[in-house]
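Folding problem:
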Amino acid sequence: MVIPSRMEGQSLAMLEAMAYGRMVISTKVGDAERLVKHNETGFLIDAPTVALIDLALEKAWKERTNWVEMGKLSRKHLFEMIQKDPVIDFSNKLEELIK
């Protein structure tokens, strides 16, 4: 999945790609830096310029034999970061703040 955004919050398309075990190439915007581990679960681009996107695509192509494994790691990392029940997750965070 390639998503060279200029501005993004938490991309639903990126989350769906990760949930399906796909490697992600994204710019460092929104939650991408938190969700994509550079060179492990995908590739991060500093800015959405043609030159930087080209470099990222070249690097990804050289790593194409690792895409399946990167995708599996991407899915695992996503579900470690995002809990299945957001209400319980939010409640736990509130409890931590109160302590």
About this structure: Residues 2-98 form a domain with the Rossmann fold fold (CATH 3.40.50.2000). The mean pLDDT is 89.
